[in-house]
Write a structure and sequence with these properties.
Layout: E1 16-19, H1 27-32, E2 37-42, H2 46-49, H3 52-62, E3 66-70, H4 79-92, E4 97-101, H5 103-115, H6 123-126, E5 138-142, E6 154-159, E7 164-169, E8 177-180, H7 190-208, H8 216-238, H9 243-257, H10 270-282, H11 286-301, H12 306-317, H13 326-343, H14 360-367, H15 383-392
Parallel strand pairs: 1-8, 2-3, 2-4, 4-5, 5-8
Antiparallel strand pairs: 6-7
């Protein structure tokens, strides 16, 4: 097992966080500092049913902002809608995008933002053919704690031509500001809350499982954020209007993916890559895909560093540490994660999501470029490794 000391890092997160009750009423003022002509980007009808849309529009109108709208963002946001947003922005001379929604809406807004000033196809950025040089500023009113996209430098888009789901990471797409009111999450369906929790926890675990040694501070921050989720998600599911629980989850989602927990270490990210192929083909919720993939990945790689998995089990799940048999401790930690997913209503097997073996080979090919590259850093996984993980997840 290759190890290295804490690596050099530069940490910068420019997103202004505006957190708390009624903060959506500040959106007009915050947006006006950037533009008087914007694209309001959102998903379906949920923000209209819960009144958030009206509150946002009122604040924007009072600030004298000209608003053009583009709705219809789907979970696993699509390239075709991104291209429509780019067209609208160019046609209307729009130079700011306001995303009102969760990670899918924000990711779509970021894709539009990098696409508007670019003369080529925006997919070039997601397929690795080009690097963004600039982007329009993006503002966020967050409705779903999950992806952490509200203060991250990443975006994931699905291309319907071949059903490829790919990500972009670039500092130009950090949002300018993120307005976060936990009250707007009170009406989330239980399943959406659970899927969001899975995504948040996966972002932490992707960073936690590292070959970098002597990174105790960030280990402890990761563990604390995971324990916060484990405590508060059941509380939010039991009482959806528990503000304290919702606030903890919302802030944990941001901390999980604003790159603080990446400092000084190299994370893994294989599970995300493996899951992206699932949700690209089957359109499964990302969090549900992760609750299936992550335990399977753990079972496949835990022997690479049994002590880290045992530490995870002990510190996060309170499993008694068996000094004579740390492997037993490690395996109990994986079992505890699966039990937690099950307790909040998430699948832990492909069969529970009605997914069979039909596309496993295809997904393994897409995940690794037909075996031309590996995925992950904790353990570098080949095409056959990825296929074996899918099979473990059946």
């Amino acid at each position: 097992m290759e190890e290295e000391d804490m690596i050099n890092f530069t940490f910068r997160n420019p997103t202004k966080i505006i957190f708390g009750k009624d903060t959506e009423y500040l959106v007009g003022k915050e947006t006006k500092a950037y533009s008087s002509r914007i694209l309001l980007h959102y998903g379906g009808g949920s923000i209209k049913r819960n009144g958030l849309y009206d509150r946002v529009r009122k604040s924007l109108d009072e600030a004298g902002i000209e608003v053009h709208e583009l709705s219809g963002v789907l979970p696993n946001p699509r390239l075709t809608l991104v291209q429509e947003g780019i067209r609208i922005c160019r046609e209307k001379g729009i130079n700011f995008i306001l995303a009102v929604g969760g990670g899918s809406v924000i990711d779509s807004a970021k894709a539009i933002a990098v696409g508007v000033p670019y003369k080529g196809n925006v997919w070039d950025f997601y397929s690795g053919k080009a690097v963004p040089g600039e982007a329009l500023p993006v503002g966020v009113v967050l409705t779903i704690p999950a992806a952490g996209s509200e203060s991250s430098n990443s975006s994931v888009i699905t291309n319907e031509d071949g059903w490829y789901k790919r990500g972009l990471t670039d500092d130009s797409i950090y949002p300018a500001f993120a307005i976060m009111n936990p009250e707007v999450t009170f009406t989330l369906p239980d399943y959406q809350t659970a899927c969001g929790a899975s995504d948040i926890m996966a972002h932490i675990m992707e960073r936690y499982f590292t070959n970098t040694r002597d990174v105790e501070l960030i280990d402890r921050l990761c563990e604390a954020t995971l324990k916060t989720m484990i405590l508060n998600v059941p509380r939010a599911l039991k009482n959806p209007t528990d503000y304290a629980a919702r606030a903890e989850i919302m802030w944990a989602g941001t901390v999980a993916h604003n790159n603080l927990l990446s400092t000084g270490r190299i994370g893994d990210w294989a599970s995300h890559g493996i899951e992206h192929e699932l949700s690209a083909i089957y359109d499964i919720a990302h969090g549900a895909g992760l609750s299936i993939v992550f335990p399977a990945w753990m079972k496949y790689v835990y022997k690479h560093d049994i002590s880290r998995f045992a530490q995870y089990a002990h510190r996060v799940w309170n499993v008694d540490y068996n000094v004579f048999n740390p492997e037993e401790t490690a395996l109990k930690g994986i079992e505890a994660l699966e039990a937690f997913y099950t307790s909040i209503g998430l699948p832990i097997r492909l069969s529970q999501a009605n997914i069979d073996e039909e596309h496993l080979e295809e997904m393994a090919d897409k995940c690794t470029g037909s075996g031309s590259y590996t995925v992950g850093n904790f353990v570098k996984l080949t095409r056959d490794d990825v296929l074996n993980i899918y099979k473990l997840a059946l």
